[in-house]
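A favour, since you know our structure tokens better than I do. Go ahead and set the record down below.
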Amino acid sequence: MAARALAVQVVAWLLLWEAAGLTWAPATALTAPASDAGIRATCSEIILKQEVLKDGFHRDLVIKVKLGESIEDLQTCLLLIKHYIPSGLFVDPYELASLQERNIAEAVMVSENYNIEAPSYLSKESEVLVYAREDSQCINCFQAVLPVHYRYHRPHSKDGETSIVLNNPDLLMYCDQAGSIGMIRISFAAFGKALEFPILKCWAQSEVAAPCALKNKDICKWSNMKYKSVYRNVTLQVPVGLTIHTPLVCSVTLLITILCATLILVAVFKYGHFSL
């Protein structure tokens, strides 16, 4: 009878636990690492794709980011793309200012003493910050467009082209659960602590200091996000001159310069009015 009564009590306790929404699990399963694994399992992988559009020496670098359909509250997050432009390309800061005035793009040059007229062999890598915008044609997607231009390169002895490798950028994210710029914390009064925004907890690698917004001089701590790139990098082919053409080019240039100068002098003496 005592054994039967004990069995009834055990069954009753199990029913009460199940009715309360609790399940039996070892104590180790309720620790913080298990909760971290659960959050990581719910996060979709971040995918980044960059491609260069248009032809000629003036191109558009398009960067698209997809954060995954399972991620919620993206309206509280901002994406910042930190790109390193190789010496063979340049970004015109005056063009960026014009695009900002027309509300087409939000980007700013970080590098100082930047010369857009210098050839590639007298230039160095530059840094650009581009604030991505939500893509209306894709769910949970962001997009940024950056105009880039080819620099002049040294002539080659044989090949009439040179390669420019455009590496993948750094992807920075800043989220605000309250809808304003600030550190994201989700308050759980029942547990008496704060947890990071799930996507930041999943993929954030480090923190980077950068302006909170293009028109805001305040500095915020952005999370440097880990992502999967569609392409390892983008390689551009730039046409260059050949050294064997140097005598011909110099001769033709000199002849045209002399001819034009002669025509100008003739026109000045023929139609000009001189007073003594």
Notes: The first helix runs from residue 2 to 19. Residues 16-41, 179-195 have pLDDT under 50 and may be disordered. The first strand starts at residue 47 and ends at 53.
